[in-house]
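haha ok so turns out i had the wrong file open the whole time. this is the CORRECT one, sorry everyone. sequence first:
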Amino acid sequence: MRETEQDLVGLQALLDRSYERAGPHLLEIHTPDRRLTAAELAERLQGVCVLSLATVTADCRPIVGPVDGIFYRGSFWFGTGAGALRVSHIARNPAVSGAYTVGESLAVTIHGEAEEVDLSDEEGFGSVCREIYGDEWDGWGGVAPYYRIEARALFTFEMDDG
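then structure:
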């Protein structure tokens, strides 16, 4: 877990605000006993979490596709190919939504804006990518665009498989 105490406080505040604004249907399913705390969420989201990421096309249609999601410092980060259509979508409209699910037992949903990040900070996110991807990372760093999702809403759901 790479989150600082300050990261966890901010993440918990985001979770609390998100549920304060949630609709009745979501609240019926995401009962308090099924929600993860910030610390629990950070603990579960280690390594690559394949994120189904939705972007918005020029004619306002949502398009979803998988990306390597990495949860770091209380936020989802993701990369994509320089020639991917989602790069032009985000440049035109940075609104994104993402979902990470594990069967019916875990769901994390995020809504926000994608912000491109600088990967030259080897002590930060770049070093995390190097740990995850190993030698392959040397060919991607600085070539593939990476983004951090500035979340405006985040929802978690965990239910015991039993």
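The first strand starts at residue 48 and ends at 56.
again sry for the mixup
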